[in-house]
């Protein structure tokens, strides 16, 4: 059967392009321009988000409204001209549908003003906006229906000029029909083929992806359905009809020309499909589906009538479900692109899905658009859809990552422990241990007294609460509804989103060092005079314990193995629950090596270390940062209860922390403030990295770096010049930060696997200052726990550090280099004196 009705006697109907080639040329140029502008705008918007995130700046809320406005203006103007100026009815119809798509893309892009950390709220807005756009466009383009599938349409009508049947076709008992002889509606073979194609596109995402929470997954499905409905309104039967008019109708014209027009529409739909980063896969995968939809429409026409919106809804909705439901957009970030993390696997899934889409386009075009071919029987199409559905389930359950991995919440209570008046006790370790024990007692007592009712209620609701005492807080399951309920309780101060990483299909290969061991003290160790402390003063840090919260530590590294304190309370891994020190990322091994490593890489090679894992795949969360800081105040044995089994007398003396908790991980400015205050009250010195968000002023922002009770460290290079990346002050409230600087460029230290590596960052500078404190306290044990005097000695003995010419002076040198470059030799001598 040929496509379309048989033409009446008389002269042939005009071709869809009208008279002359220029309208068609204009349409081609406008279509190419639309794709170029839309894709470029989405990529640039995501790149800006990533640049801001990498620079540590606050999120640029105006980015996506500007992208939306640019898309509407740059695409809307030529498509409006295309809809009004040409005499060719088909070209005007194409212009109208592209204009409607551009307006829809702009409206959906605006939704990205919702912060990425609130994914459920964004998906709810996406579902509602997509559905509203579909309803509005359907009402605006509604026209009087034609008499039947065999009657010609008015080529001058806009999208949806023909009222589509609710099913694939109206042919009862025919190969493409949805309605059997009894009149009961059923799904026809064209819709089933669309479902099968959509499930084929879902397969790679079912393998590499993982679902979020239950509500998040349901909202993602609703959003995908809403965008599928929007695509169904844009790609209605009236649009396809412009490519079926002719004498005789040509299947190639419908599939090729109609497929290209539909592909441009799908680019516009994909532009609004997901938070920043999640829309990128759709921009690649959806456009080839225009050819698939054209082939399905050709098969439906041959079987008795137009396909209607149902196949479009299913195919586009399933094509979008993968990236919307199975990928966390916050993890599609360049910060994770250095390893086989989420960006790598998203790229793999996108490549596979694109290949599937292209194969579907070619296969459906060849099989369904041939002039004498008809749609396969309903049973065959149903079997294909059922087989692919089973394949999606099996792939997700067996090689995939089944289960729900939604974000948790951190509930911060109003009442925090009163630590005023904690007695200083005798100087040295005995006094420090007594203070730590008293702080631990007060913290646990406050948490037990104030959390009871809320913990019982959360347990009753099966929300799996985890209590904390260092900050009086509770981590719990829950989405926006639970968050709203908790925020309204009188004992709750605020509720933070506690990020949860979704699992990967395969672990990234562990980091390995590729540099040989140094033949003497590393340059940075000599620059601050630590080797002179060993050789001339005979002090190496013995008797002092340094605690590290980071990605882990390779406990078998030859430069670190002998320094591990050992016992059942010197290692804690709240992520993977490993029982011995391990590190897949390398960052933690490097920082511990700079603090206490042997073989010339560490400042205090005689000190011992304990470790905790608060970063997994270079991302953390407020609760996991608390896990490690809490462990450092009162270490507990493996499997122990932090509330009852803590041992404050085993707390390390000084902590090195080369991390920060930005808003994307769920922290606000005060999230960890009670934690650092409690550690200071216990006499534990907390040394933290300023951050790598220079050269911007006021860039010491991510907790705990801006806090007054921590020692914040910036970075200099070999020439004692402040590095460009080192964060600058002033901190919140005008506080001068950083406090000191240390070498942080091209620093050689230990790396997993027994090798060594050079890294840059304030992360590398921070452990060296912790190592200097270990030398000072080893030289004069009476200083242990005396934070005020230790800070004063470090400031008084620091040497000037340079600032590159032309650098912004911010609030002054104190906001660039603090007191200056740490001087280990002078500080230890002053500590002894």
TrEMBL record:
Q: Which GO terms describe its biological process?
A: proteolysis
Q: Print the keywords alphabetically.
A: Hydrolase, Membrane, Protease, Serine protease, Transmembrane, Transmembrane helix
Q: Where is this region: Disordered?
A: 145-183
**What highest taxon heads this organism's lineage?**
Bacteria
The question of whether Membrane is a record keyword is answered with yes
Q: Which Gene3D superfamilies match?
A: Peptidase S8/S53 domain (3.40.50.200)
**Active-site residues per Swiss-Prot or TrEMBL entry:** 550 (charge relay system), 587 (charge relay system), 763 (charge relay system)
The cross-references to PROSITE patterns, in alphabetical order and at most eight, read:
SUBTILASE, SUBTILASE_SER
What parts of the sequence cross the membrane?
21-44, 64-85, 97-115, 121-141, 187-207, 219-242, 254-274, 280-299, 311-327, 342-368, 380-398
Q: Which residues form the Peptidase S8/S53 domain?
A: 541-804
According to the UniProt entry, its GO molecular function terms are: serine-type endopeptidase activity
- InterPro entries of this UniProt entry? Peptidase_S8/S53_dom, Peptidase_S8/S53_dom_sf, Peptidase_S8/S53_subtilisin, Peptidase_S8_Ser-AS, Peptidase_S8_subtilisin-rel
Annotated family: Belongs to the peptidase S8 family.
The protein here is known as: S8 family serine peptidase
């Amino acid at each position: 059967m040929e496509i379309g009705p048989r033409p009446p006697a008389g002269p042939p109907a005009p071709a869809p392009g009208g008279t002359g080639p220029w309208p068609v040329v204009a349409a081609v140029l406008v279509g190419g321009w639309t794709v170029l502008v839309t894709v470029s705008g989405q990529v640039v918007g995501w790149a800006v988000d990533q640049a801001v995130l990498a620079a540590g700046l606050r999120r640029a809320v105006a980015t996506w409204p500007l992208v939306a406005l640019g898309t509407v203006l740059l695409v809307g103007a030529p498509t409006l001209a295309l809809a009004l100026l040409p005499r060719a009815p088909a070209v005007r119809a194409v212009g109208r549908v592209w204009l409607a798509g551009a307006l829809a893309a702009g409206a959906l892009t605006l939704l990205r003003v919702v912060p990425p950390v609130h994914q459920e709220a964004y998906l709810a807005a996406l579902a509602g906006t997509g559905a509203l756009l579909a309803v509005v466009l359907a009402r605006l383009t509604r026209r009087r229906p034609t008499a039947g599938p065999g009657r010609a349409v008015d080529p001058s009508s806009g999208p949806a000029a023909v009222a589509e049947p609710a099913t694939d076709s109206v042919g009862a008992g025919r190969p493409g029909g949805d309605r059997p002889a009894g009149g009961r509606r059923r799904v026809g073979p064209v819709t089933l083929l669309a479902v099968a194609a959509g499930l084929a596109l879902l397969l790679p995402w079912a393998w590499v992806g993982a679902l979020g929470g239950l509500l998040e997954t349901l909202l993602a499905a609703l959003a995908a359905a809403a965008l599928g409905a929007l695509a169904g309104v844009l790609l209605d039967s009236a649009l396809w009809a412009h490519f079926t008019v002719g004498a005789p109708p040509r299947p190639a014209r419908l599939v090729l020309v109609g497929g290209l027009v539909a592909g441009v529409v799908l680019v516009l739909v994909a532009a609004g499909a997901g938070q920043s980063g999640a829309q990128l896969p759709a921009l690649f995968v959806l456009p080839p589906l225009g050819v698939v939809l054209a082939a399905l429409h050709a098969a439906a026409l041959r079987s008795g009538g137009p396909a209607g919106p149902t196949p479009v809804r299913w195919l586009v909705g399933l094509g979008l479900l993968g990236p919307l439901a199975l990928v966390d957009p916050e993890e599609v970030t360049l910060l994770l692109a250095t390893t086989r993390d989420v960006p790598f696997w998203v790229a793999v899934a996108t490549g596979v899905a694109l290949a599937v889409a292209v194969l579907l386009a070619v296969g459906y075009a060849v099989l369904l658009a041939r002039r004498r071919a008809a749609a396969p029987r309903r049973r065959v199409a149903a079997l294909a859809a059922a087989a692919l559905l089973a394949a999606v389930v099996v792939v997700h359950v067996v090689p995939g990552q089944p289960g729900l991995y939604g974000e948790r919440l951190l509930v911060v209570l109003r009442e925090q422990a009163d630590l005023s008046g904690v007695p200083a006790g005798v100087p040295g370790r005995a006094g420090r241990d007594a203070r730590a024990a008293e702080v631990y007692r007060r913290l646990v007592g406050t948490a037990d007294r104030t959390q009871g009712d809320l913990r019982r209620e959360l347990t009753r609701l099966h929300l799996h609460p985890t209590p904390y005492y260092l900050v009086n807080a509770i981590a719990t399951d829950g989405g926006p509804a639970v968050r709203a309920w908790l925020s309204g309780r009188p004992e709750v101060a605020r509720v933070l989103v506690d990020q949860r990483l979704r699992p990967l299909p395969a672990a990234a290969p562990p980091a390995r060092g590729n540099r040989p061991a140094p033949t003497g003290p590393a340059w940075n160790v000599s620059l601050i005079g630590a080797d002179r402390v060993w050789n001339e003063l005979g002090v190496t840090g013995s008797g002092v314990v340094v605690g590290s919260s980071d990605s882990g530590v390779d406990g078998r590294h030859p430069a670190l193995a002998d320094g591990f304190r050992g016992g059942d309370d010197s290692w804690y891994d709240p992520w993977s629950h490993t029982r011995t020190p391990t590190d897949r990322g390398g960052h933690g091994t490097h920082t511990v090596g700079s603090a206490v490593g042997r073989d010339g890489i560490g400042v205090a090679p005689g000190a011992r270390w304990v470790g905790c894992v608060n970063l997994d795949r270079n991302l953390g969360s407020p609760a996991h940062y608390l896990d490690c800081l809490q462990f450092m105040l009162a270490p507990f044995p493996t499997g122990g209860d932090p509330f009852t089994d803590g041992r404050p007398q085993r707390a390390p003396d000084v902590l090195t922390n080369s991390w920060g908790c930005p808003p994307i991980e769920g922290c606000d400015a005060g999230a960890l403030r009670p934690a650092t205050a409690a550690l200071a009250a216990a006499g534990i010195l907390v040394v933290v990295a300023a951050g790598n968000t220079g050269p911007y002023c006021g860039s010491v922002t991510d907790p705990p770096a801006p806090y007054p009770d921590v020692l914040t460290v910036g970075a200099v290079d070999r020439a004692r010049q402040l590095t460009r990346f080192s964060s600058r002050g002033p901190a919140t409230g005008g506080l001068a930060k950083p406090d000191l600087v240390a070498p942080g460029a091209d620093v050689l230290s230990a790396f997993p696997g027994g090798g060594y590596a050079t890294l840059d960052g304030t992360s590398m500078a921070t452990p060296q200052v912790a190592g200097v404190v270990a030398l000072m306290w080893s030289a004069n044990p009476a200083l242990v726990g005396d934070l005020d005097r230790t800070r004063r000695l470090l400031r008084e003995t620091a040497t000037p550090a340079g600032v590159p010419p032309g650098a912004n002076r911010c609030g002054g040198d104190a906001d660039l280099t603090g007191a200056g470059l740490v001087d280990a030799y002078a500080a230890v001598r002053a500590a002894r004196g």
